[in-house]
Write a structure and sequence with these properties.
With 340 residues, the chain is an alpha/beta fold. A hairpin with a 5-residue loop joins strand 19 and strand 20. The termini are far apart. It has eleven helices and 20 strands.
Length: 340
């Protein structure tokens, strides 16, 4: 009898335990997990990943280019994590719409938002302008300068690659595209954008191109993974996940998102908490920004007092979580601080 191949999440690289796979009896659901579009939980339940604002924007832009020649009802977009998605669209004569798919993430404030792209053929080159509903930086921040649109580098690359792909498919030598999100300014009020100095609309983001279904089921799976691991690193986001694997290749890496407290509560031995400063330091030291004049930990990290504040957080961690080692990473993966 031929042994079945191990099931690996292509987004995170996580090897699903055999017991989790055995608990799911639906082959289509297991295929969804193998594709990366679904996440398998310890109970065997499958949760769908959603699409980031970057992926949705990329789909709208590509469809707008394609519709200069012929309308389509879906486009294929290659995400930053390497997975290709077929995204439904509505388009005609250079105008396209794509709706933000949230998957099984109940807290997605941008769920259902419609991204609108309008394309005009040009003799050469590509220009991308942003319109209604896409936020712009109102002040200098680590992520952008005043007046710049709030589009992350990974999302911008995904969008430009989708546009280029559409040009190659149609043979159009150049395009000018305007991207907008009607109603985006209203939705932005439900996000952290105003605190981050981003006004007028939402951000276009996406490190992997996919949104994790962080609900109560996933929280339970995180706790089970932490409890079962011999050597474990808890991290908070995709960059933390990537760099934790590089820094700690012999550890089990568990992505806990904002559920750091639940993950640490499940630990049965020593744990490393590794990630970017924001969630980690705010969790350890909720008052870290008081008296600094900074609105975010990311801003604080660019100031001379950051090292001092980070050491205060480490001191709190040593007292409250004696089993915990804290490693703070930059967005480039360099270690900014280590509690030892």
């Amino acid at each position: 009898m031929q042994e079945s191949k191990p099931l690996i999440d292509p987004v995170t690289g996580f090897l699903y335990p055999e017991s989790w796979v055995a608990a799911c009896t639906d082959r289509e659901q297991l295929a969804l997990a193998a594709s990366g579009l679904g996440v398998l939980t310890a109970s065997g339940k499958m949760l769908r990943r959603g699409y980031t604002t970057g992926t949705t924007a990329a789909a709208a832009c590509k469809a707008a280019v394609l519709s200069l020649e012929n309308p389509v009802d879906s486009v294929t977009v290659r995400t930053p994590c390497g997975i290709s998605l077929d995204v439904p669209v509505r388009c005609s004569r250079g105008r396209a719409e794509a709706s933000k798919f949230a998957g099984d993430y109940p807290g997605d404030a941008t769920a259902g938002l419609v991204f609108v792209a309008e394309a005009e053929a040009r003799h050469e080159g590509v220009t991308l302008e942003t319109g209604e509903g896409i936020g712009r930086f109102s002040r200098e921040t680590p992520r952008g300068r005043p007046g710049e649109p709030a589009i992350s580098p990974s999302a911008l690359q995904e969008i430009m690659e989708a546009i280029t792909d559409g040009m190659e498919m149609t043979g159009i030598p150049g395009v000018a595209i305007t991207l907008a999100v009607p109603g985006g300014h209203v939705t932005a009020g439900k996000t952290l954008n105003p605190r981050l100095g981003i006004l007028g609309g939402i951000s276009v983001l996406g490190t992997t191109g996919l949104v994790e279904p962080w609900d109560d089921h996933m929280a339970g799976s995180v706790k089970e993974r932490v409890a079962a691991a011999g050597r474990v690193v808890v991290t908070t986001g995709r960059l933390g996940l990537r760099y934790s694997r590089l820094h700690f290749p012999d550890h089990e890496i568990v992505l806990a998102g904002s559920g750091i407290g639940e993950a640490l509560g499940a630990a049965r031995g020593k744990v490393i908490l590794c990630g970017l400063p924001g969630l980690v330091l705010k969790f350890l030291f909720p008052g870290i920004l008081q008296g600094t004049g900074c609105l975010t930990v990311e801003e604080l990290s660019q100031t001379p007092v950051f090292s001092e504040k980070m050491e205060e957080a480490f001191s709190i961690a040593r007292t409250k979580y004696p089993f915990l080692r804290v490693v703070i990473l930059s967005r480039d993966g360099e270690i900014m601080g280590d509690s030892g």
